[in-house]
Amino acid sequence: MSDELPRIVLRSVQVRYIAPDGQRTLCPLDAAGAIAFEECLPARHIPHRKNQQHTPAWHWSSTTNRMVVYESYLESVWMTLLDFDPQVISYSSQPMLLDGVDNLGAWKAYPDLFVRRLDGTGTLVEVKNPEKIADAKVQLTARRVAACAAAAGWGYDLLGAPPHQQTAINVLHLAGYRREMVGVAQYRDRLLALAADPVRFGDLVGFFEDDQVARAVAAHLCWTQELEVDLSEPLEDTTVVRAAR
Length: 245
Hints:
Blueprint: E1 10-18, E2 24-28, E3 57-61, E4 66-70, H1 73-84, E5 88-93, E6 97-102, E7 105-109, E8 113-117, E9 122-127, H2 136-152, E10 155-159, H3 165-174, H4 185-194, E11 199-200, H5 201-205, H6 211-223, E12 227-229, E13 240-243
Parallel strand pairs: 9-10
Antiparallel strand pairs: 1-2, 1-6, 3-4, 5-8, 6-7, 8-9, 11-13, 12-13
């Protein structure tokens, strides 16, 4: 975030959210750190309008095993990356409305995501069009939300395009295999045994009579990270994989 914008001094912030049971609730910011916002319902209805630029829809999260609403395709990409992150145990979309007053005036903001990690920490996440992320209005809102996150004991991330495009492309490809397959336990165990030492992906699945099933199971194991693979390079039959150590 730009250092040219004025410093934010929070004076009062109310947090409005919808609990998992549908109860609309209000709490002061200093009490928000104790709330499991990763389980809350969306506090904002994302509009669907003809000819709108955004592409709202629903994302099935393999982390939470539920549908999560998103406002743009870029948000859905980041959700998939969150699903791939083993440190992320849950997340929610449009988790709260921050209704605040600071030294610059009154304001409201809906963060895009709340993320809970394995160590118990929480993070507010906002996903913005990379072409607009430097805009003064976006930066001011980001500073306000970041100040709220710090006050509640959370982290804050302002995200544009994924920094490693090839990695994101590979994760999106593997996401097509993120669901557990039924009746293929024998493939899983043998694939991991054969990959105890580094082996090319094509050679690994070639050990099986039904190499297409083996390929799908191997891709799932790459998604679950039971098979280690370099995601910074294109995934091909020549890509080297090995069982996670």
